[in-house]
Design goal:
The complex is a heterodimer of chains A (463) and B (497).
Chain A lengths: L1 H14 L22 H5 L9 E3 L6 E3 L1 E4 L5 E3 L6 E3 L1 H13 L4 E3 L4 H4 L1 H9 L8 E6 L9 H14 L5 E9 L3 H9 L3 H10 L3 E8 L3 H9 L1 H4 L3 E5 L18 H10 L4 E4 L12 H10 L5 H11 L3 E6 L4 H11 L7 H16 L20 H13 L12 H15 L25 H16 L5
Parallel strand pairs in A: 3-6, 3-12, 6-7, 7-8, 8-9, 9-10, 10-11, 11-12
Antiparallel strand pairs in A: 1-2, 4-5
Helix pairs in contact in A: 3-5, 13-14, 16-17
Chain B lengths: L1 H21 L4 H11 L2 H6 L3 H14 L2 H6 L1 H16 L11 H17 L2 H7 L1 H30 L15 H21 L2 H5 L2 H10 L4 E5 L9 H4 L6 E2 L4 E2 L9 H5 L5 E5 L72 H7 L5 H5 L5 E3 L9 E3 L12 H5 L10 H4 L2 E8 L5 H4 L6 H5 L5 E8 L2 E8 L9 H5 L8 E11 L1
Antiparallel strand pairs in B: 1-4, 2-3, 5-6, 7-10, 8-9
Helix pairs in contact in B: 1-2, 6-9, 6-10, 7-12, 9-10
The chains are: A alpha/beta (463), B alpha+beta (497).
């Protein structure tokens, strides 16, 4: 708390306004005290107001805000070669989260280029083991980890890196639409049998899976509930995907469908991508204006979090918080959670329609496609493109009024955010990224589209 | 007053040409590009008769004002000399003309031009010397400054400035530039215009004309009290105070002496040439009008200079694949930019001033390290390719080595053709399909055709040499590294397709 006080203190100084001391609390109505100290504008974050959900199997209380450990802060390495995780910052974030009641930490062996588990373990081991729940995953994506030894070795390594002898929530990482993939990775090699035994032995308290795939695969996995008794399932959910299908062949295959299927079976739901990798925080001006109008003192991101938290079957909503301000903002949204009203849910539905009108590429910067063997910075390219879309710098015609400005913003911003050697023109359409994208983006096609657009601008062609 | 006018004009010209060389955005060219085109030697090599006559007429009327106003290297030396005079007042002395040296250097220079030894020309020519100092030594500082602004602009979400990469194009050229700068600095610091009045071929030619100039500084012997202040402040060391004579072939009309003279004995006025000047008149054949195109060249002996050491530091953050640096392939025939008509034309006209190199926004042009073509531009495609919308090198070239072309003309000028290197090609030795070269070819000269390779059918590029213009998009964007699987061979003579 001390740190937060210092932060707000600094903000006060920065504001440089005359502070009318205690009178501030009197509110804005009083004629004699129109100035309010900024501390009261933001409000102190309470440490005892976190909303909790109960796991029906274990009865344990899980904080509605879960810490996603996929986007830990980085810092430049001391030798200047590349970047590494900023352990000091991670410790601070974890301390602050625990202090405010966050008790669910979700990591995976592959996160942060394989460094996440270790860093998370270091930060958490400084606190009593019973004050938090650890979720990690079996990320046996590469063929050499798909053997029994490979997968079990990965699991054992997770225990070691996380400095614990049990995992609270273990997930089969990213099950896809193809059920054969599940059998290949977990059943045929005997890994599933091993995990079930670990669950019986209490070293895995809850066993579930995270899902990125089509309807067929999901329905089959639900059928397998009889066999495996999924203790929880992690799905992608947010107000954009709630009614938008993940699968172009099945219009009804939405986040709502996934949620309802799980709720029907009384399986607790863990939410990932509540913000779509930040996309629902960086909405276009029109949507931003309407959200701010409805709740002027709440952040735009808070709507996305509250939307997920509103559904009672949700155990926890994961957020990959890189910076203290992300954490603080989310704590404000969840301490305590103010569920959305029906009207507000309906408004977000309209916002989703507005957002979908913009030609954004639905990349969440999860980095699963990386590294691209030909060196492209795929998420970086998409982020730049989406930024231009949101800022209204995407031209429809070369005769547009803002042509010069938008052209410069796109090209200069492109070189700034992505080194030239890693830009879309270096895509050779090998298609190796395609199977990795949980959002099912046709990456080579999008690369081609972005490159065409960049070329049109560079050559100042008419369109 | 006259001195102030000279300084004001010189400052204007100097800063403009400096800007022209430092600028990488193409803005300066539109405003001050003409200032490079009125430089004497480039105009001679461009056979720009109008400018040559204009400059000669200017010299005939006013003396060597060209050397103290228009020539950036001359002004640069004045700046050095100014510092020299700060250190020690009245530092110069009269010295007799070293005519034999001047004319010998001029003669050698003309012979070298005729022989087509561009490297020697580039070493001696004043404008080129200035250009390479700017391009290799000052432009990096300019770009770093710009990058700092770009960093700030990025922070405040402004697109006013953009980052530009600084890279070492050629070590030999940088070394030559440093040596030139140091030598000129010492010479100018100590003795003012030594270079201009002994080595510089332009100075010698203009000096020959200027002795007949209409207006010149003249000493009024009736007013002179023989204090020698003028001589001791003459950076050209051309005032003989004993005889009250000024060597007009060396005087650059800086007007310093007029200001210095406390008696008001020197004035810039009309004076008829003394009769004895006729005695040492050289044959007219040495005038620049006869410096025709260089007749021969030592034909392209596949000079491959890869002296440039890639100095770009690679940033690796683990989430991105490491990208190997591209290496310069061995080209049998070098590539010269569109507009240069032929390798011979470029070699005949280029003074190696580096203006095109400093302008090239795509990292394509760099100075040659070849002995004969030293410092003349050549193209390579490791960092970028000759983009269809760009004609910057042709826009700026003052010598006619690269002739002006339009974007439309450029798309049809064949400067080389692409050659496929089977054993580097990605589809042939990996499971990945490719087609980057065909996708990016602006003229549609490359198509992917099925080919049997080790018992399986793969798609490989086929180049239609008739359609290929040699822009290097394929070479640059080929995923094979460090050597591309497709590269461009230059053509000796460019043609339209």
């Amino acid at each position: 708390m001390e740190k937060i006080n210092r932060r707000t203190f600094i903000k006060n100084i920065g504001a440089g306004t005359a502070v009318v001391g205690a009178a501030a609390l009197a509110g804005c109505e009083g004629k004699n005290n129109p100035l309010v100290d900024s501390t009261s504008a933001l409000g102190e974050i309470p440490t005892d107001q976190m909303t909790y959900r109960t796991n029906p199997k274990t009865g344990e209380k899980v904080s509605i805000l879960g810490y996603g450990c996929m986007r830990w802060p980085m810092k430049p390495k001391e030798d200047g070669e590349g970047e590494e995780l900023d352990q000091e910052q991670i410790n601070r974030l974890v301390d602050c989260a625990l202090e405010h009641g966050v008790n669910y930490f979700d990591t995976a062996p592959v996160y942060c280029q394989g460094q996440s588990e270790k860093a998370t373990g270091i930060a958490l081991a400084r606190h009593p083991r019973d004050s938090y729940f650890i979720a990690t995953k079996l990320s046996n994506f590469s063929p050499d980890t798909q053997t029994y030894e490979g997968s079990v070795g990965m699991y054992k390594n997770s225990l070691k890196e996380l400095q614990t002898d049990y995992i609270d929530y273990l997930l089969l990482h990213a099950l896809g639409g193809n059920i054969g993939d599940f059998y290949h990775r977990f059943v045929d090699n005997g890994v599933m049998e091993f995990l079930m035994k670990e669950r019986e032995a209490g070293r895995i308290r809850n066993l579930g899976f995270s899902f990125h795939g089509g309807k067929d695969g999901f329905d089959k996995l639900m059928e397998l509930h009889e066999t495996y008794h999924w203790d929880f399932v992690q799905i992608q959910m947010n107000y954009l995907d709630w009614s938008k299908s993940f699968d172009w062949q099945n219009a009804e295959f939405t986040a709502e469908y996934l949620y309802k299927e799980l709720e029907k079976r009384n399986i607790p739901v863990v939410i990932m991508e509540p913000l779509l990798g930040g996309r629902l925080a960086k909405v276009n001006e029109h949507v931003a204006g309407q959200l701010k109008q409805a709740e002027p003192e709440r952040s735009i991101a808070s709507w996305a979090f509250r939307f997920c938290g509103t559904w009672p079957g949700v155990l926890t909503v994961l957020s990959g918080m890189t910076y203290m301000e992300h954490l603080e903002d989310n704590l404000r949204s969840f301490c305590p959670l103010k569920p959305l009203t029906e009207d507000e849910v309906a408004m977000l539905g309209r916002m989703a329609q507005e957002i979908l009108k913009y030609p954004n590429i639905p990349c969440t910067a999860c980095q699963y496609c990386m590294p691209c063997p030909y060196g492209l910075d795929i998420p970086g390219i998409f982020a730049h493109y989406n930024k231009c879309v949101n800022e209204g710098n995407m031209l429809v015609s070369s005769a547009d009024e803002n042509y010069r400005k938008a052209r410069r913003a796109f090209l200069v911003g492109y070189d700034r955010s992505v080194p030239r050697l890693r830009q879309a023109d270096h895509c050779i359409r090998c298609g190796r990224c395609l199977e990795h994208c949980p959002q099912h983006i046709n990456i080579p096609e999008q690369m081609d589209k972005i490159n065409q657009y960049a070329e049109t601008l560079k050559q100042e062609l008419e369109f | 007053m006259l001195r102030k006018v000279r300084i004001a004009l010189a400052t204007l010209f100097f800063l403009s040409i400096l800007w022209l060389f430092l600028d990488f955005t193409g803005t300066a060219q539109q405003w001050v590009g003409w200032m490079a085109k009125i430089q004497f030697l480039p105009a001679v090599l461009a056979l720009n008769v109008g400018i040559i006559i204009g400059l000669l007429a200017l010299t005939l009327a006013l003396g060597r004002v060209y050397c103290s106003v228009i020539c950036p290297l001359g002004v640069m030396q004045d700046i050095f000399a100014w510092f020299g005079r700060k250190a020690k007042k009245n530092r110069y002395n009269y010295s007799p003309a070293k005519s034999w040296l001047r004319y010998a250097v001029l003669a050698v220079f003309i012979v070298l031009i005729v022989l087509g030894i561009g490297s020697a020309v580039a070493l001696l020519a004043p404008y080129s010397a200035f250009g390479r100092i700017c391009q290799t030594l000052l432009q990096p500082l300019w770009i770093w400054g710009n990058n700092l602004l770009a960093m700030i602009a990025e922070k405040v979400d402004s697109y006013a400035f953009y980052r530009e990469e600084v890279w070492m194009r050629s070590w030999p050229v940088a070394i030559v530039a440093i040596v030139t700068l140091v030598a000129l600095f010492i010479l100018a610091w100590r003795n003012g215009r030594t270079y201009c009045n002994t080595i510089c071929p332009v100075g010698t030619v203009l000096g020959f004309v200027s002795r007949f100039s209409l207006l010149k500084p003249v000493i009024d012997t009736s007013k002179c009290n023989g204090c020698k202040l003028c001589a001791r402040n003459c950076k050209a060391a051309c005032i003989n105070p004993e005889k009250h004579e000024i060597d007009y072939s060396r005087c650059v009309d800086c007007m310093d002496c007029i200001n210095k003279c406390r008696q008001g004995a020197i004035s810039y006025t009309i004076a008829l040439p003394k009769k004895k000047a006729k005695a040492d008149a050289s044959p007219a054949s040495e005038t620049p009008a006869d410096q025709d195109r260089r007749a021969f060249i030592l034909t392209s002996s596949a000079v491959l200079a890869t002296a440039a050491v890639e100095s770009q530091a690679k940033k690796v953050d683990g989430g991105l694949a490491v990208i190997a640096e591209k290496k310069v392939p061995r080209r049998h025939t070098k590539i010269v930019p569109p507009g240069s008509l032929s390798i011979k034309n470029l070699e005949d006209h280029c003074t190696g001033c580096q203006l095109c190199v400093s302008e090239c926004p795509n990292g394509v042009l760099r100075p040659s390290g070849g002995i004969v073509t030293f410092m003349q531009p050549e193209a390579s495609y490791e960092r970028g390719y000759c983009r269809p919308e760009c004609t910057r090198c042709a826009d700026v070239c003052p010598t006619g080595a690269i002739r002006p072309i339009t974007k439309e003309e450029k798309t049809a000028i064949q400067i080389g053709h692409a050659v496929w290197i089977r054993c580097n090609c990605i589809p042939l030795h990996s499971d990945d399909t490719c087609g980057a070269c065909a996708n990016h070819c602006p003229t549609g000269a490359i198509q992917m055709v099925p080919l049997m390779h080790k018992g399986k059918e793969v798609m490989a590029p086929a180049v239609n040499e008739e359609l290929c213009i040699g822009c290097g998009a394929c070479e640059n964007l080929c995923p094979a590294r460090p050597f591309s699987a497709i590269y461009v061979e230059g053509h000796e003579v460019h043609r339209e397709i």
